[in-house]
Amino acid sequence: MTPTAVDAPGFSERYRVIQSRDRRFDGQFVTAVRSTGIYCRPSCPARTPKEENVTFYATSAAAHEAGYRACKRCLPEAAPGSPQWDVRGDVVARAMRLIADGVVDREGVPGLSRRLGYSARHLTRLLVAELGAGPLALARAHRAHTARALLVGTDLSSADVAFSAGFHSIRQFTETIGEVFGMPPRELRARRSRVAGAPASAGEIDLALPVRGPVDTVGLFGWMRAHAIPGVEVGDDRSFARVVSLPGGAAWFEVRLADDGRLRLRARLAALADLGTLIARVRRLFDLDADPLAIDEALARHPELAPAVAAIPGVRVPGAIDAGEMLLRAMIGQQISVASARTMQGRLAAQLGETVGVGPQPMTLFPGPAVIAERGLEVLRGPAARMRAIVEAAAALAEGSLELGPGDDGPEQRARLLSMRGIGPWTADYVRMRVLGDPDVLLPGDVAARAGAAALGLPSDPVGFTAWSQKLAPWRSYAMAHYWYAAPVTQAWRSPAETAAAASVASGRPDASSERPRTPASRRRRAPIDVVSSDVSAELPESESEDRS
Fold this sequence. Notes:
Layout: H1 11-20, E1 30-33, E2 38-40, E3 54-57, H2 60-65, E4 69-70, H3 84-87, H4 91-100, H5 103-116, H6 120-131, H7 135-153, H8 158-164, H9 170-181, H10 185-189, E5 205-208, H11 217-227, E6 233-235, E7 239-246, E8 249-257, E9 263-269, H12 275-285, H13 292-300, H14 306-311, H15 323-332, H16 338-352, E10 355-356, E11 363-364, H17 369-379, H18 384-399, H19 410-418, H20 425-436, H21 447-455, H22 462-469, H23 476-486, H24 497-506, H25 520-525
Parallel strand pairs: 2-4
Antiparallel strand pairs: 1-2, 1-3, 5-9, 6-7, 7-8, 8-9, 10-11
């Protein structure tokens, strides 16, 4: 049986999953056992319970509400998150993304309901009907998950763990841990010797990031490195680090591939209460809750794409650490190369960003929308119409007339963006792919993607490219990743950083990626440095331009 993130399995299918202890379903549902009063992840090694004693829940919060506690043996809270909340675009999925981002902890249920456009009562009714738990219970379960990770993975004091996880008091923290895990915090912490990583530096948090394998870490770190803004982000073959503004202040984080093959997160935060939000955003940035086996199986059914899937199993689509920043970066990079976009974004950060020392060394925060709205025209370079459009978008973000976030309704978000000057279909859809994690976005105006399709023997004209890719729904975003990686101009993204640097030096230019793209053949003859951006619009004919006056 193959897992899918589209149609939830029924009782009999789920029961077969727990009989086989299939790890692929960990995080997608939990198994509550009436005879023991506990709930487990699907792969729990304990003896399979009798069918009549089993109830399946979509979330651990629902099991908590029904009176069950977490299994001490399999610790279901340590599983990756459910891919359902990224795949689905309904109000329940949008609510789950916002709850993970900490909206309930910061703004309460009224804030969550306002963002989703529902009354608090109706939203609670929807969540309870489908998930068996309301927003407060779901937020509580999320806090318990964060607290468990900190107790077993760090040396933080219990008080620091409590407030980092979003609890408002030590008592609330202690009671919740006892109810959820059936043991006090100190007993849960005693288990850390089995799972803790290398000791972190003073003031630093170091945690393992649960993920479903396989994971294309080569592509992930290559992508991040290729698009890193100087001074704001830095990446190599095995790590990516940056600083970011969170609700409580600045934070620095690094995601790295550890020697044991696991992904780990190191972080330093100005406000420990932001940790849960940071973890959720990092997971979205690296697409760690995806269901790679379901995606790969669906794409590999098509013989033309099967070799690409076999060559790169577990491909991921990078998300966004900040929705407003993602929009502005995409607009800045329209119709120019990746290298040119990085140069302009780096200049913007250097002149308008704030340098912070929250990390191991000072780094610069990407400037906020208000600063770009006020002073962006002093720094930005390019066509006047595009620069005005960027500043107008920044002003809309700053004043709140444009709100972007993971809880947006996809079609509504797209319509809002398309109504703004300087934003066309490529930018609107690209933001939807990155900010919402929408798995089914195709960008027919992306030159690099169409070049990759041609390299794979697929139609590369916009009409043919769109028509052929329709058969890949609902996973066209992941097909886009394969198209990008197959494009000659993006081969360096999957090469070690030293190889890319050497190719640039060998080309006789400081950075070959600043050259305008010519024909695919000429690109193949030159060093394959990133010429056409896949998080920015490529050089397009006027008929495909994103500029609108």
